[in-house]
Amino acid sequence: MGGFSQPILHGLCSFGYATRHVLKQYAGNDVSKFKAIKVRFSKPVLPGQTIQTNMWKQENRILIQCKVVETGDVVLSDGYIELTDVASVTTSPAEVGYLYSRNSSESYILKSEMIFNEMGKQMAQSPDLVGKVNGVFLYNITAGNKVAGQWTVVAKAPSGQVYKGEPKSGKADCTVTMADEDFFQLVTGSLNPQQAFMAGKLKVKGNIMLLQKAGKLFEQYAKL
């Protein structure tokens, strides 16, 4: 089968998802604003895998790179899409977008990506804060009732660490499952943790008392 041990997703399908992501983020889903596209097919995608599109805006040219979330493999590289006009973008950060598709009709932006990226930087600069928390947390972020992203937060001395996926060694002391929008509202202070828990929006397994300490890691985002 073309030298592959199993069926693969047609390259034009990956191509199409990348285009849809850019149009959603920068053109208000208006296909008439599409002008041109260029990419390099780097690796195949298997049916059922999740495609992440990273985007960088340079005037009307959107630089793109796509990877498979489950493996981290870059599948489309050295690419760009040119638009006739770029719509105003209301998501943050404004210059970089992250969109996902699970080979279906669903595509969405994960706001949580920004939170975890910034948290990793802050933890590296605040070793004292990491020591006060002293725990390992796994966050399952959902969208469309499916897990769309996983992040591990290692808040233990001497230094903290934040990375995608499950813990690289051992098990998490506490596992949190939340919808992306609910998590963003919780972190930025517009959703009360106790109310979220009672309403079933915040699901916790493991050391729930330790999770209260983890709130210190998110205090800087309450002003967003």
What does this 3D model show about the protein?
The chain is α+β, with helices and mostly antiparallel strands and 224 residues long. Helix content is 26%, strand content 34%. It is built from 6 helices and 11 strands. The strands form 2 sheets. A 6-stranded antiparallel β-sheet has the order 1-4-3-2-5-6, covered by helices on one side. The protein has a 5-stranded mixed β-sheet with strand order 9-8-7-10-11. The longest helix is centred in the N-terminal third of the chain and has 16 residues, at 11-26. It is globular. The N and C termini lie far apart (51 Å).
Short description:
The chain is of the alpha+beta class and 224 residues long. The chain is 26% helix and 34% strand.
Q: What structural class do the secondary elements suggest?
A: alpha+beta
**Which oligomeric state applies?**
single chain
> What is the succession of H and E elements?
HEEEEEEHHEEEEHHEH
Radius of gyration: 19 Å
- Biggest sheet: strands, sense, closure? 6 strands, antiparallel
Tell me the β content: 25-35%
Judging from the principal axes of the Cα atoms, what is the shape? globular
Strand order of the largest sheet: 1-4-3-2-5-6
SS elements, strand count: 11
Mean pLDDT: 82
Summarize the amount of helix as a percent range. Answer: 25-40%
Low-confidence stretches: 89-97, 103-107
Number of helices: 6
Report how far the terminal alpha carbons are from each other.
51 Å
List keywords for this structure.
single chain; 224 residues; alpha+beta; six-stranded antiparallel beta sheet; five-stranded mixed beta sheet; 6 helices; 11 strands; 26% helix; globular
